Amino acid sequence: MSEKRAAKRRKRRMNPLLVIVLGTSLMLAGSWSYQLFKIDRSIESKKAQLVKQKDQLVAQNDQLRQEIEKLNTPSYIEQLAREKLGLVRKGEILIAPKEQQKKN
Questions:
Q1: Buried b (16+ CB within 10 A) or exposed e, 61-96
Q2: Could you report the per-residue pLDDT of 48-87, keeping only the tens digit for each?
Q3: CA separation (Å) from 87 to 28, 59, 95, 99?
Q4: Domain regions of the chain by residue span
């Protein structure tokens, strides 16, 4: 019986080379999984940043579209012409305040 037990013990023991190979592959697998985790985390961070930037650009685009619609109305064009260019309608007289002279 002792020979049977010795045979079983030999079968149970793993080859030391196999242990080294398995250990090394597990360490590499752990290293790869950690690297993948870091890459995934950085990608998620970049994605969140890009989504935030996209939302800001969409809001800015909506604001610009509203401004374009406003600029295309005749009443707003007239208002700008009067304020910025000093234009008046036919028969109107432009009255502007006199600028004060600087005293020396």
A1: eeeeeeeeeeeeeeeeeeeeeeeeeeeeeeeeeeee
A2: 999 999 999 999 999 999 999 999 999 998 888 888 887 7
A3: 78, 34, 11, 19
A4: 11-85
